[in-house]
Specification:
Elements: H1 2-19, H2 21-27, H3 35-53, H4 60-77, H5 83-95, H6 99-111, H7 120-143, H8 147-171, H9 173-180, H10 195-218, H11 221-243, H12 246-249, H13 258-265
Helix pairs in contact: 1-2, 1-3, 1-5, 2-11, 3-5, 3-6, 3-7, 4-5, 4-6, 6-7, 7-8, 8-10, 8-11, 10-11
Length: 266
């Protein structure tokens, strides 16, 4: 069983590094005892994203339901024949990640199958399930059973996850519209996205970062460097988006160069 778990965790690490170079780089700064568990969380969320974003079959909802149910079964029996799910359940068992965090995540993923525009309330629910609970899953790992510490840092972890997701939405505005016909920001359409809309979104994200920033200082030592590196990366990306004309964001994905990523990590 040890070999199977180690191989499953390797699969999650490969998923992480293949799908997100910036997150993969930052993850290397986690303490060795933490790193595999962050990969395991990311691996499961990545599979769900693939189902709703790139799989084009009419049965996508059924497949997502099957993944959710397999995750719950694996958490109950401590085993799955899906290596990514098996790796995740091991992390969930060790750190007390349960359905209260997973159900909102899968609910938000399910929304992506049909929803193209969001009200303010729908947007907030989506952000909670797609990003805030992921931040809380990672915080469960960081705190390693210290419930008082988890409670103290939970709001900052939620807001940091929300900020990252919103930055991704702003960066991916063109792709979300052109490839998926989505626009997540409430009251904003692709056609109507202008400087005023962009600056309002940027201000909302900065508010999330402002709440999250003090939390980073209080994180356990094994997690602090990696989270601070990811924070700096996303803040730099937000600054670049803020300085980029709205018309340009509507045409292409704004990126941070690899050299700049490395400098932020250093």
């Amino acid at each position: 069983m040890d070999l199977y778990l180690a191989t499953a965790q390797t699969s999650s690490r490969l998923f992480t590094n293949a799908y997100s170079s910036s997150f993969g780089l930052a993850s290397r700064l986690f303490n060795k005892s933490i790193r595999p568990h962050i990969y395991n969380i990311y691996g499961l969320t990545r599979i769900a994203d693939e189902i709703v974003d790139t799989y084009k079959g009419a049965d996508a909802g059924k497949i997502l339901d099957e993944l959710e149910q397999e995750t719950y079964r694996a958490m109950a029996r401590c085993y799955s024949t899906n290596p990514i799910v098996h790796a995740f359940q091991a992390t969930a068992q060790q750190f007390g990640i349960d359905k209260t965090l997973l159900q909102p995540f899968f609910a938000s993923m399910r929304t992506d199958l049909t929803k193209r525009r969001f009200s303010q309330a729908e947007y907030q629910r989506y952000i909670h399930g797609s990003a805030e609970v992921v931040g809380l899953m990672c915080l469960r790992v960081f705190c390693n059973g210290n419930d008082a510490q988890y409670t103290q840092l939970a709001e900052g972890a939620r807001r940091l996850g929300a900020a990252y997701q919103k930055v991704n939405f702003l960066r991916d505005l063109a792709a979300d519209h052109n490839e998926l016909q989505r626009c997540y920001f409430p009251g904003v359409t692709y056609e109507g996205f202008d400087e005023a809309a962009k600056q309002a979104i940027v201000a909302d994200i900065r508010a999330d970062f402002a709440v999250a920033a003090p939390t980073i200082t209080d994180l356990p030592a094994g997690a602090k460097r990696a989270v601070r590196a990811s924070y700096r990366y996303y803040l730099a990306l937000l600054d670049k988006l803020a300085a980029t004309p709205a018309a340009t964001i509507k045409k292409r994905r704004i990126r941070i160069s690899n050299a700049r990523k490395l400098s932020l990590l250093v």
